[in-house]
Design goal:
Helices cover 37% and strands 20% of the residues. A hairpin with an 8-residue loop joins strand 4 and strand 5.
Length: 494
């Protein structure tokens, strides 16, 4: 009998790695292969040590030698080994062998799985901490098609042995979660960190596919990664696919636009087009090696205390994607952190486009109180980046056009402001469309919610139609409003 004391709080205890592996091993139907390259065979080791693995582990292998690996899985077009394409080839190959060698007629109830990883742990110089791709192909009914979970990780520990152990724990959590938590992918994500800490490993990309996850929106899964502190930022394509930031941004010029985009307006698009033209006109910027990123910070997704309105997030994402843009979700409140994040992948020129009002906030000391060096530390980090800030004007309440020349900052910040201005770090967007400066996202949103006329003219072409068709941001069609009115009248009659 379990003893409960006054004051005890309910909590969920995660099963040990041994118990997770043992539960899998004791299931007479679960049966699969392990192919681990680059960090030992720490995942399958947990299953061997748990006991009872003979009925679960069909094969465990590690093709460390590149020539041997190529002979098994083929040669990649880019000659690289730690890639998503390589991982998928490993899953394809191992699952095909499993189905060829194990007769379904003889074993009609077998639940096949194939676990694979291809990783690079920390180098001897400890300059690069390493990263890797991890994947699982599995089924929970013998007659089902296979489903996949594929993720990318970055190691944070400074010892290869520790990284190997961490990878083994993550792999075990993944296999266990796939079989026993697949009905709740959000929970499955959090369980990946059982017996691990966020300072050991970072999960920066995850994709669910297959029949088990046909209703899973991978953009929402990206949001969960940031929400739970598993990574600082995630990206996804206009098609809704999660992207690996390092692959997209590596050695690229980057122009980033931060905003709420609730909804995206003509001002947002004019800011993008004009800043982009200025950015690529720079001699140091190669247009063919330039990425444009629309960034939404996590703070812009929150309602109330710490709750995130996921529906609202998807509404914004849908519109930005429809315009053909790559979207990034981050937990960066400060702009210097955005620059630092991009500098992990490139040393080429960065561009940040923002409104003049945002520029005022950039020079507000209250946003940097958590830094030992305060605002000077933050701007020191910005100054070391090859960065240009493109400032979009706005009209004051008095009707004056506000630019970098007449923006007022706190007297203590004037010298710092002048330093960035006269060193060419800040540039006015001079050919901005002055006729649309009275358009504000908040105003448009209220008009949509209140079913007012005229908001359509404030948005880019094609966006109003999407909002209406999908009933985004609380939009209600005239038919819906008429139906509600009739329903009220009907109720009143009784």
């Amino acid at each position: 009998m379990t003893i409960k004391l006054k004051g005890d709080k309910a909590f969920e205890a995660a099963p040990s790695l041994k118990n997770k592996a043992l539960r899998i091993n004791l299931n007479e139907h679960i049966y699969g292969t392990f192919a681990e390259i680059g960090a030992g065979q720490e995942t399958v080791r947990n299953f061997f040590r748990a006991g009872g693995g003979s009925g679960t582990i069909a094969k465990a292998m590690s093709a460390y030698d590149k020539d041997f690996s190529d002979a098994i899985y083929g040669i990649e077009d880019d000659k690289r080994y730690v890639t998503e394409a390589r991982l998928k080839k490993m899953l394809d190959h191992e699952m095909n062998l499993l189905e060829e060698r194990i007769s379904r007629d003889k074993h009609p109830n077998k639940l096949f799985f194939s676990y694979a990883n291809t990783v690079a742990t920390i180098d001897f110089a400890k300059k690069y901490k390493g990263h890797g791709w991890i994947g699982l192909r599995f089924q929970v009914n013998a007659t089902d098609e296979f489903s996949d979970i594929i993720l990318h990780v970055r190691f944070k520990e400074n010892d290869a042995r520790l990284q190997q152990n961490t990878l083994g724990a993550l792999g075990t959590n993944l296999i266990y979660g796939a079989f026993y938590k697949h009905n709740n992918p959000k929970k499955l994500l959090t369980y990946l960190y059982d017996h691990l800490d966020k300072d050991q490993i970072e999960i920066d990309t995850i994709n669910f596919s297959g029949p088990l996850f046909r209703n899973v929106d991978n953009r929402l899964m990206s949001l969960q990664l940031v929400k739970h502190g598993m990574t600082d930022a995630v990206m996804f394509s206009p098609e809704g696919h999660n992207l690996l930031a390092g692959k997209i941004l590596y050695k690229k010029n980057i122009l980033a636009l931060r905003g709420s985009f609730r909804p995206v307006t003509k001002v947002n698009m004019d800011m993008f087009k004009k800043s982009y033209d200025m950015f690529i006109s720079d001699n140091k910027v190669d247009e063919n090696k330039t990425e444009v990123i629309f960034e939404i910070t996590l703070s812009n997704l929150k309602e109330g205390l710490n709750e995130i309105n996921e529906r609202d997030f998807l509404d914004r994402a849908e519109l930005l994607c429809s315009l053909g843009h790559t979207v990034m979700i981050s937990n960066f409140k400060e702009y210097y952190k955005v620059a630092q994040y991009f500098n992990k992948f490139t040393k080429k020129r960065l561009g940040l486009a923002m409104g003049a009002l945002n520029l005022i906030e950039l020079f507000d000391e209250k946003y940097y109180r958590d830094l030992p060096g305060g605002i000077l530390e933050a701007f020191g980090k910005l100054a070391t980046s090859d960065i240009r800030v493109f400032v979009y004007p706005f009209t004051s309440e008095d009707g004056d056009l506000m630019t970098i020349d007449n923006i007022k900052v706190h007297p203590r910040m004037k010298d710092l402001y002048k330093f960035f201005k006269y060193n060419g770090k800040m540039l006015d967007i001079k050919d901005a469309d002055l006729s649309i400066l009275n358009i504000y996202s908040r105003k448009v949103l209220k008009m949509i919610e209140n079913n007012e006329d005229g908001w359509e003219n404030m948005l880019p072409e094609g966006i109003p139609e999407i909002i209406k068709k999908q009933s985004l941001f609380g939009y209600e069609s005239e038919e819906e409003i008429d139906f509600e009115s009739e329903d009220e009248e009907y109720s009143d009659a009784f």
